[in-house]
Amino acid sequence: MWDLLNSFEHTAFRLEVRDRYDESDEAGSLAKFLAGEPDDLPWMQEWLDLVREAREGGRSFSRVRVVTVPLTDYSRFGLWCAQFTNEAGEDIRYLARDQADVAGVPKHDYWLFDSTTLVRMDFDDADGFLGTELITDPSQVVKHNYWRDAAWHHAVRRDDFAGQQHRGRD
User: Fold this and answer.
1) Cα dist. 59→85, 91, 98, 129, 140 in Å?
2) What InterPro entries does this protein map onto (predicted)?
């Protein structure tokens, strides 16, 4: 997977549809976030460097996160972390789950590289990452391009979404 993340030519898009990911390297930062403690996000630095290097080389990362509203603690943490990836150059947008359902967005995660290379990501029922599957069927690649465009069309920029969530708590 890291080979693809480092070698795409123009665009890398990720669709995330889960309300939680069981990532052991995030656990400490999630606990600090929930406790209101500061954190320098050491587990995220490699990703931020990758995004910055890609941007400097004229390549772009983008992502749509499908979330349940009101947000879970994990999704609130992800929204907070996204400010740093946005600063690094990744364009992260948010789409409420009910809107994603109406738009026909799939219920599985995937990466789409240069609109031609599709990698489906599989998770177990406990939110653990199982692995990836490279999909080469052209009809599936086209479908996932369509779903990317539908999700992107309905999604809201991270900062706008964060503002909406903050206003919703007032």
Assistant:
1) 15, 12, 31, 26, 24
2) DUF6879
Neighbouring residues of 100: CB distance < 8 A, sequence distance ≥ 6: 17, 66, 151, 154
- How large is the average pLDDT for residues 30-48? 93
133-146 burial by CB neighbour count: b if 16+ within 10 A, else e? eebeeeeebeebee
Residue type, 42: P
User: pTM for the complete prediction?
Assistant: 0.94
Quick one: average pLDDT of 77-99? 97
Which residue is associated with the tokens 């609130």? 76
Residue type for 14, please?
R
Measured CA to CA, the distance from residue 45 to residue 107 in angstroms comes to 29
The answer to whether 59 and 163 are in contact (CB under 8 A) is no
CATH of 2-169, picked from 3.40.50.2300, 3.30.870.10, 3.30.420.140, 3.40.50.1980, is 3.30.870.10
Neighbours of 38 (CB within 10 A): 6
Is residue 126's pLDDT more than 70?
A: yes
What are the residue boundaries of the structural domains of the chain, listed by start? 2-169
- What tokens appear for 50 in the block? 């990758």
